[in-house]
Design brief:
Elements lengths: L7 H14 L16 H9 L12 H17 L6 E5 L2 H15 L7 E5 L5 H9 L2 E5 L9 H7 L4 E7 L11 H11 L2 E5 L25 E4 L12 E5 L10 E2 L7 E2 L9 H38 L12 E4 L13 E2 L5 E4 L6 H15 L1
Parallel strand pairs: 2-3, 2-4, 4-5, 5-6
Antiparallel strand pairs: 1-7, 6-7, 8-9, 10-12, 11-12
């Protein structure tokens, strides 16, 4: 730590230089996050000092969290849903498996079944909670094989996980089929919709993935992805409003005497930002955003295939993958690669059509 403080102008000159070292979203095609919507930024700034970990001190902010959960409950066909705002999909997924573990606390050697496409946060969750993770294989279309998942169930299985909008290929697992397994075997069923939860409801023909599907117990969704909120902003939704109470611990010196959240101090600012975007855009506005992103995804796929780059999958949401050698992607574009070494691009709201066309021109020139 410095012995003597720095002048404000000098300090922020230093910060400015460091900020310039960050990559410009103009050329970022790999991220599932995006530039926050201006209303999210404005709302975030209004609530920067608030702490949802001590809600009695910030009752107005706490009421915004309840409204945010209500908005997602309505969107996911469960108006009476419970839940809370998390730091994102990783926390939501950990908490979902923590709930599943509490639900079947008598099982000495518990296991959970996840798809081969599951986000790496499930490995963290299983490590923390002492769960054995069983990976169900994927079908040729990169969706979870529900029959194979059913074959992995035994008396020690405490949860099954499906993904709605996989990180690598943008696929939606067969949630209704997995729900039937969950109902038949009385298993906790978590849907990781961190990305797809703010895409699928706004598609012309949305595939079933939420609480409308019998058996779904919890859902993770991240407003800081397609919801264009400030980071970090996630939500864990529960079918039953009181389900989370099984995780309560005593907090005697706070304004609440028990809490079930994973984090203690929790920022209220991104919660306000997430609610601001939902209420500002409404269903019509979000539909327009998603429609634009899907249109750009289809244009990218068509443009890449016309240049000789075969698609690796036909995605359900705005993630596109291609057979492509890494040296074919020119600077300064920032893409990513799947575990099977397919080129991966996410057509987020900041990836406008002109960015798609510029990338296609550059990769086409590089290909030539």
């Amino acid at each position: 730590m410095l012995n003597k403080g720095r002048a404000e102008e000098e300090l922020f000159s230093f910060f400015c230089r460091k900020k310039q070292e960050d990559l410009d979203y103009t050329f970022i095609l790999s991220s599932m996050c995006t530039l926050p919507h201006p209303v999210a930024v404005r709302a975030h700034c209004m609530f920067m000092e608030t702490n949802l970990g001590d809600p009695g001190l910030f009752p107005g902010t706490a009421s915004l969290e309840k409204l945010l959960i209500q908005r997602f409950g309505d969107l996911f066909h469960c108006p009476d849903a419970g839940g809370y705002a998390t730091s994102g999909g990783t926390e939501s997924n950990i908490q979902a498996l923590r709930l599943a573990r509490a639900h079947r606390h008598e099982v000495a050697t518990p296991n959970v079944i996840v798809p081969g496409s599951a986000h790496f946060s499930f490995k963290k969750a299983c490590d923390i909670l002492g769960l054995a993770m069983r990976r169900a294989p994927l079908l040729e279309d990169h969706r979870m094989d529900a029959d194979a998942a059913a074959g992995l169930v035994d008396k020690n299985t405490i949860a099954i996980v499906g993904v709605a909008g996989t990180t690598e290929y943008g696929m939606v697992d067969p949630i209704p089929a997995l729900g039937r397994i969950a109902v038949q075997d009385d298993i906790f069923f978590h849907v990781d919709a961190a990305f797809g939860g703010m895409v699928i409801p706004f598609l012309p023909d949305p595939m079933p993935f939420d609480f409308a599907v019998p058996g779904v117990t919890t859902i993770a969704v991240d407003p800081h992805k397609m919801g264009m909120s400030t980071i970090p902003a996630g939500c864990l939704l529960t079918r039953g409003a009181d389900l989370l109470n099984t995780l309560n611990i005593d907090t005697p010196y706070l304004t609440v005497k028990q809490e079930y959240t994973l984090g203690g101090t929790r920022p209220g600012a991104p919660v306000a930002g997430a609610l601001a975007v939902l209420d500002y855009l409404g269903r019509d506005g979000m539909t327009a955003i998603v429609t634009g992103c899907m249109k750009n995804t289809h244009r990218l796929i068509a443009g890449m295939e016309s240049r000789g780059f075969r698609r690796a999958a036909t995605p359900d949401v705005n993630v596109a993958t291609f057979v492509c050698e890494k040296e074919r992607v020119p600077d300064p574009w920032k893409v990513s690669w799947t575990c099977q070494d397919y080129l991966r691009i996410v057509c987020m709201p900041h990836v406008h059509l002109d960015r798609i066309e510029a990338f296609l021109n550059d990769i086409g020139d590089n290909h030539a």
